[in-house]
Write a structure and sequence with these properties.
mainly alpha, globular
């Protein structure tokens, strides 16, 4: 048996993807932290350009550089301190230099990325479907975390995700291309319509344009047939969490609650289990 056959064997491939997913999760933490900063700097530079002013001076920052640092003391994180999950456990969740606490989100994002990669590989086996599903889930993890922090859904994630969904479905990987195109259009228009109905009725904005684009991307991946399930799931989870925050955490009614994480979770459910859920409903409740 050659090396490729060993690596792609059903007993080996998921575990390789688990390890790779953990490493991707470490990179996603960088994206979640830095992309909003990059976006903010770009907006400020554009505003300064419109006012014919010099752009605000700031240390150059990208997704690859500079090296990750402790936000409390500026300690540069070494490679051994950046091992997914393991470094967090070894350091007991604290910076090795100043002992400041490291947020639990870092290992959680790494674990989510690794576990979902394992599941994609286990479910689909070696091939386009597995790798595409991993990319879909990883993009939703990053977008959801950024939306949770900033109430922003970056176009640099949602728009490539939409086009990638259409390309992936050219050969009918998760749905046929026609369903994907209709899903993208219907997903955008569905929330766009809700936005305008709510704004005309109340004078307030109930959601952002990023939510429209994210649902359009989910529709491109899963097809229009899954949109109702995605909207119902995300709305139900969002309403339950919102009520719990208001009642238990004294979360103000006027404080915005990001919708992206619930759309992302519902999109993942729809991709993996949506068709089975539809078949179960039709068999037991329809007709």
């Amino acid at each position: 048996m050659n090396s490729l056959a060993v690596l792609t064997h059903p007993a080996v491939f998921p575990w390789l993807c688990l390890v790779f997913g953990l490493m991707v999760g470490s990179f996603l933490n960088v994206v979640i932290h830095r992309l909003p900063i990059i976006m903010d700097r770009d907006w400020r530079a554009q505003c300064a350009e419109l006012r014919a002013e010099a752009a605000p001076a700031a240390e150059p920052i990208g997704l690859a550089r500079p090296r990750s640092r402790c936000p409390a003391c500026g300690h540069a994180i070494s490679a051994i301190e950046n091992l997914p999950v393991l470094s967090y456990l070894a350091l007991r969740g604290r910076c090795s230099a100043c002992k400041a606490r490291i947020g639990i989100r870092y290992p959680v994002v790494e674990l989510l990325s690794g576990i979902t990669a394992y599941y994609c590989a286990y479910r689909y086996g070696f091939g386009l479907a597995a790798f595409a599903a991993m990319g879909f889930v990883w993009a939703l993890i990053a977008a959801s975390a950024i939306d949770f922090d900033t109430q922003l859904l970056p176009d640099s994630i949602t728009m490539p995700l939409l086009w990638a969904g259409l390309l992936v479905n050219l050969p009918g990987t998760f749905t046929d291309l026609r369903s994907g195109v209709i899903g993208a259009v219907a997903g955008y228009l569905a929330l766009w319509s809700v936005y305008w109905v709510f704004k005309l009725a109340t004078g307030k904005e109930g959601m952002g344009f990023g939510d429209f684009k994210l649902l359009a991307a989910v529709g491109a991946w899963t097809g229009w047939q899954m949109l109702l399930l995605v909207v119902l799931l995300s709305s139900s989870i969002g309403a339950a969490v919102g009520i719990a925050l208001i009642v238990l955490a004294r979360h103000g009614r006027n404080i915005p609650i990001p919708f992206g994480p619930y759309l992302g979770a519902a999109g993942i459910v729809a991709l993996f289990w949506g068709p089975a859920m539809q078949r179960y409903y039709l068999a037991h409740f329809a007709g």
